Every structure is written in C-alpha cells, then in structure tokens.
C-alpha cells in the first residue's frame, strides 16, 4: 500500500513539476520479476517538441541497475553512465536542481537513434508513450531527477534544442537501518539453525 502511494506521488510530481515541457516521464509500476524488480515508465511528449538523432532522456541515479532494459521502439536504445554530460557540454542535458548526480550510482539513459520524428512542421497533438523499463535489485522507490533533451518543431525556434527537467520515481538503496534489520534477521535465523544442529548432534552422541 505504501509503495503504491509513493508511486502515485511520483506520478503526480512528474506531471505537475514539468507543465509545458518536452518529455514528461512517470513511474507507472514496480513489479517483481525473477527475484529482481522491473521499474516501468510511461509519459508524454509535448506536441511542440520532437526528436532528432541523439535526443535523450536520463533518469538519474537508478540504483541497483540489473539490466533487462525494454524500449517500445528499435529507434530508442538504452544505456547507462555514471556521470551524464550536462549543458553547455555538446549533447548535454540540463542538471536537475536539488538532485545532484551521484557519481557512484548509474544513470539510466534512453537515446533516440532513428530518423527525425516530429522535428518540424508542428505543433502536433501531445503523444503518450509507454514501454520504457529496466530491472533493479531494489524494490524501494525514491524521487530522483530526470532530464531530457528534444527539439522544438515550430516557429522561429524550429530545430533548436528543447530541454526539460523534473522529478520521477526510481529504485533506492535500502537505508542503513533496513540493512541492519535484515542482518539481525539473518543472524537470528543462523543462530536458530545452529542450535538445532547442535541439539541433533548431542542426541546422536547420547544414543
């Protein structure tokens, strides 16, 4: 229940913090898959934006990345990087205020590698998208930053980069307190099993 509420909060944050933006991703679900957890995303591409080769969406600090990436199109490839290039570096995205890029946690990157898509002649109707996902070793959800770079498709700004930043849900490393509770639990189980083994040994010796 708590996880559902947090995902709902992440969805709301992704929508409300980025009105009139280019790409708005939201975390739609977290599902268990083979002992791992699949984080699935959907969202909106604004009608006044499009994609050129190299347009990208970065979800920062995707903790516990375990592969299994899926995209809805062969024109979208996924990759990871520890530190993402930010503006004004060529091809960079905008940094996300309040969410510094942790150089120790992989960023999840989706890059457009196909022909121009709605890159001119706009604006078009807003486009809903889904099917972006990746696996993590963690099931917990946190708010992290995302940053996207698209292209303006209408007016005098046609062809110029369009940037967008906001908040989105992503996997989180368990807090130290959680790890401590798990460790205590494992130790308790180990102690019980050890005691049972000792008792069985004593019984055998008695007989």
Spell out the key features of this protein.
single chain, 207 residues, alpha+beta, Immunoglobulin-like, 2 domains, six-stranded antiparallel beta sheet, three-stranded antiparallel beta sheet, 9 strands, 22% helix, disordered C terminus, PEP-CTERM protein-sorting domain-containing protein, signal
Question: What would you say this structure looks like, in words?
Answer:
There is one protein chain. The protein contains two helices and nine strands. By secondary structure, the chain is α+β, with helices and mostly antiparallel strands. The protein folds into two domains: 2-173, Immunoglobulin-like (Sandwich), CATH 2.60.40; 175-207. The strands form two sheets. Strands 3, 4, 5, 6, 8 and 9 form a six-stranded antiparallel sheet that branches. A three-stranded antiparallel sheet has the order 1-2-7. The model is unreliable at 1-20 and 198-207 (pLDDT under 50).
Mean pLDDT: 83
Note the run of SSEs as H and E: HEEEEEEEEEH
User: For the CA atoms, what is the radius of gyration?
Assistant: 22 Å
- Measured by DSSP, the beta-strand proportion falls in 25-35%
Signal peptide: 1-21
Protein name: PEP-CTERM protein-sorting domain-containing protein
Keywords: Signal
Describe this structure in a few short sentences.
With 207 residues, the protein is α+β, with helices and mostly antiparallel strands.
Give the arrangement of secondary structure elements.
Blueprint: H1 2-16, E1 23-33, E2 36-45, E3 49-50, E4 56-59, E5 76-81, E6 107-112, E7 127-136, E8 141-152, E9 161-171, H2 176-206
Antiparallel strand pairs: 1-2, 2-7, 3-8, 4-6, 4-8, 5-6, 8-9
């Amino acid at each position: 229940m708590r996880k559902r509420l947090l995902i709902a909060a992440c969805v709301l944050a992704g929508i409300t913090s980025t009105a009139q933006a280019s790409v708005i991703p939201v975390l739609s679900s977290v599902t268990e898959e083979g002992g791992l957890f699949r984080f699935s995303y959907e969202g909106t591409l604004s009608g006044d934006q499009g994609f050129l080769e190299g347009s990208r969406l970065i979800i920062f600090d995707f903790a516990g990345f375990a592969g299994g990436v899926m995209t809805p199109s062969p024109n979208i490839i996924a990759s990871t990087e520890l530190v993402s290039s930010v503006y004004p570096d060529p091809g960079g995205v905008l940094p996300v205020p309040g969410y510094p890029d942790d150089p120790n946690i992989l960023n999840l990157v989706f890059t457009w590698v196909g022909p121009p898509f709605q890159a001119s002649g706009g604006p078009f109707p807003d486009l809903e998208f889904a099917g972006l996902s990746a696996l993590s070793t963690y099931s917990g959800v946190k708010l992290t930053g995302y940053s996207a770079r698209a292209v303006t498709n209408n007016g005098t700004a046609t062809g110029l980069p369009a940037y967008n930043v906001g908040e989105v849900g992503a996997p989180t490393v368990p807090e130290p307190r959680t790890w401590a509770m798990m460790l205590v639990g494992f130790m308790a189980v180990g102690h019980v099993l050890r005691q049972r083994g000792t008792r069985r040994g004593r019984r055998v010796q008695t007989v």
